[in-house]
Hints:
This protein has 17 helices and 9 strands. The protein has 345 residues and is of the alpha/beta class.
Amino acid sequence: MTDIGASRQGRNESSDSAFTRLNLLGESLIFRKTLRIIERIADVDATVLIQGETGTGKELAARALHYLSPRREFPFIPVNCGALPDNLLESELFGHERGAFTDAKKASRGLVSQAEGGTLLLDEVEAMTPRAQVVLLRFLQDHTYRPVGGRQISSGDLRIIASSNVDLEEMVRRGEFRRDLLFRFGILNVTMPPLRERGRDVALLAECFLDRFATQYERPQKRLHPSSIAWLMSHDWPGNIRELENLMLREFLLADGEVIQIAAPQRNAADLAFDRIDVDETFKSAKARAIALFEKNYLRHLLTETCGNVSQAARISRKDRSTLNKLVKKHGLASDRFRSAGRRP
Ligand SMILES: Nc1ncnc2c1ncn2[C@@H]1O[C@H](COP(=O)(O)OP(=O)(O)OP(=O)(O)O)[C@@H](O)[C@H]1O
Ligand SMILES: [Mg+2]
């Protein structure tokens, strides 16, 4: 976190400045509502589930919950649930004693013990295996655990925050996520709004990022041309704030002059492809590149609109489902990434 010391004093200052110090920027009504919820539940020690599309700031929100809570002096430990291997699950979470298994040359503390007194963020809980879900459920019941190979039962004093990119309710309906675990996680809920619903926050964030890069890279300030702001406001932002941040960094580093004009080249993928034709590039290769760009953009839009529903996307695009599926795979666009990304519920 950028400025933990300042956030410790945050409760005595206006909460808005505490959020600014915690890097949660935004002034739209919908975002301010979310901040008020975070502020209200930071002090409560119950488990929180943070949901939202990719790049909407779930991890930042979890950090804000921690640094605004009485646990702020203790560690904040994020753990990516998708990266927890089933065979080392208990050892990763609860630690192990020396000699507990072949590779256990010395005793090791698990993530739960590392987070003692503080907050454990279970990130991407949707990626948890069925076995991991059972192990977590058991731990969440009374916060007790036993290190692998150990005899003693320990009790963890920590707050759990879970975060998810996809609608867990929907996963429960499909039988892919345990309902009892969802109940345990979702005592308190925070939903991070998608960037496209945050109105002028897009421009505000874009300008804040440009200021930040100027300081970070010790280069002159750059500003956005009005046409760039119009384009930013009209874009759908499937990758949300991360996508905006990356675009701004690219523009900041590559744009000539102090005014950034992104409207024209970004408007359409084919234009972009043609902008970059090398003098010695063949017609065939330039055309293939333009088509690939068009396909990827088209599919991204389609999957966002249909919340990743390939059958519906096939109907709209008048392509058959398996052809569409092949295209989705070819462009590395996992359709489940879009499940909670669309505008329709
Ligand atoms: N309100 C905000 N103000 C400024 N920057 C933000 C805000 N929200 C998110 N960011 C920035 O956007 C990027 C993505 O945020 P974060 O990692 O918290 O999102 P996420 O929802 O956890 O994404 P993912 O689902 O992909 O893990 C980070 O660089 C973060 O600093
Ligand atoms: Mg995250």
